[in-house]
Design goal:
97 residues; Rossmann fold; 3 strands
């Protein structure tokens, strides 16, 4: 699913359809919103370091203004998986290890 809010909607829709999460279908979100852990089952999600990302963007913008830089810059963001209860082990889980 796109983001945690959409994933929470998918959890509700799965329940309405009689599908069990994660036994019948796995659901994962993106953003790690606060309510994600309180859903049933708790939503597995990707956490993006928003504070760090915002601070880095601010510093890059300030550097461009102060130093009159025109070239673009790239940064690397390191999101992390927050494993909760909405995802079951897949058939290839041991393959990755």
């Amino acid at each position: 699913c796109g983001g945690d809010i959409m994933a929470m909607g998918a959890l509700c829709a799965a329940d309405e359809m009689g599908l069990r999460v994660p036994q019948d279908v796995s659901v994962i979100g993106y953003d790690n919103v606060r309510n994600a852990r309180f859903f049933t089952p708790a939503l597995t999600t990707i956490h993006q370091p928003k504070d760090s990302l915002g601070e880095t963007a601010f510093n890059m913008l300030l550097d461009r203004i102060v130093n009159k830089r025109e070239e673009s810059q790239s940064i690397e963001v390191h999101p992390r998986l927050v494993e909760r209860r909405s995802v079951a082990d897949g058939p290839f889980r041991d393959y990755r290890r």
